[in-house]
Amino acid sequence: MNINYKVFALAFLLAGCAGEKEKITETLFHTSGRVDAVSDRKVYLLGSASSIEFSYKGNSCEFNMESVDTWKHHNYYVLEIDGFYKGRFTIDSIGIEKVKIEETKDTIHHVKVFKATEAANGKVLFDGSGITNLVPFSAESKKRIEFIGNSITCGMGNDLTIPCHSTDFWFDQHNAYWAYGPVLARELNADFLLSSVSGYGMYRNWNDEHESEPNLPEVYENLNLDKDTSKVFNTDFQPDLVSICLGTNDLSDGDGKKERLPFNEEKYIANYIKFIKTIYNRYPDTQLVLLNSPMVSGEKNDVFMACLKKVKEAFETDTVHKPITIFEYKPMEPQGCDYHPDVEDHKFMAQQLKETFKKILNE
């Protein structure tokens, strides 16, 4: 989802420049990812790495942030200023917090605020209604990528500035800014969207046989990536490329305590095919890349890859959509929390994907 609040008209396209992207001239705020806008300056950041950006003139500016959920708890956001990562910061559970940015140079600065955690961790409210020194900035339309997946795509367990299991909160190491998708998108100068939920799979989840929890395809078209159907995930963001990385949890053995049935290839393949049809219905001109998982190896990976090939084969006679690509990661021993990749692992994953994605986006 991409929402632009424009203060001037859109720039026109030059006649005869086939394939040239439309350029948006001036805007005060620009949002990306799964967000819910209350007004042009007040936005709920919902999904992993959802963001809002703006420019201001001077050496400081102030805005408000709040962690909003059905229960009181802290949350995390990331600040990027003038293209530089400034860190991951906590929003305490005390209510509305004032955030003050101070820079040494009295000039125009560009700020991006990202949600570091995922949809399951509640909303992060950004309120920029009090910013008095805003400057319109150019928001050029770029190539677009949507990354669909699970906890790996969310960036769960990757930020070890807080050591693993040193707190009581499972999301204290979340940093979606450094997940492989956002890292890769920045490398390719592309806009991105994450549609991912920790623990979810294609037909079953990490520790649930599709008995008490929905799977990812069942929540995908809901804005909040949960059972709430009151707000629909619209199709404003039309990606040039969609990658799907689902299967790690379907193939998992669960916690070893709850009953776990053998992996059902037929259910996995059938759900995958159905989900791709959902994607094509939303984005008829996109190109799909199906990913295995760097966390799955050996015989399980053989099964994984065989399933992906059967999914691709189901669309071989499809002359309407672009050909499907399968990408196989190199297996890794992840260094993050609970067998998840850390930041350096995510960078390595992004580098593996780079040439494949770059080629598709340039076609």
Task: Note down, in words, how this protein is organized.
The protein has 363 residues and is α+β, with helices and mostly antiparallel strands. 19% of the residues lie in helices and 30% in strands. The protein has six helices and 16 strands. It has helices at 151-154, 180-187, 216-219, 265-282, 298-313, 343-362; strands spanning 2-6, 23-32, 35-37, 42-45, 51-68, 75-81, 84-91, 97-115, 123-127, 134-135, 137-140, 144-149, 191-196, 241-245, 287-291, 325-327. The strands form two sheets. Strands 1, 2, 3, 4, 5, 6, 7, 8, 9, 10 and 11 form an eleven-stranded antiparallel β-sheet that branches. Helix 4 links the parallel strand 14 (241-245) and strand 15. Helix 4 (265-282) crosses helix 5 (298-313). The longest helix has 20 residues, at 343-362. It is globular.
Strand content: 25-35%
Oligomer: single chain
Alpha-beta content class: alpha+beta
What shape does the CA trace take?
Answer: globular
Mean pLDDT: 93
Low-confidence stretches: 1-22
SS summary, helix count:
6
Q: Helical content, roughly?
A: 10-25%
Radius of gyration: 20 Å
Major beta sheet summary: 11 strands, antiparallel
Question: Using DSSP, what is the number of strands?
Answer: 16
Instruction: Give the SSE order as H and E letters.
Output: EEEEEEEEEEEEHHEHEHEHEH
Q: Cα distance, first to last residue?
A: 23 Å
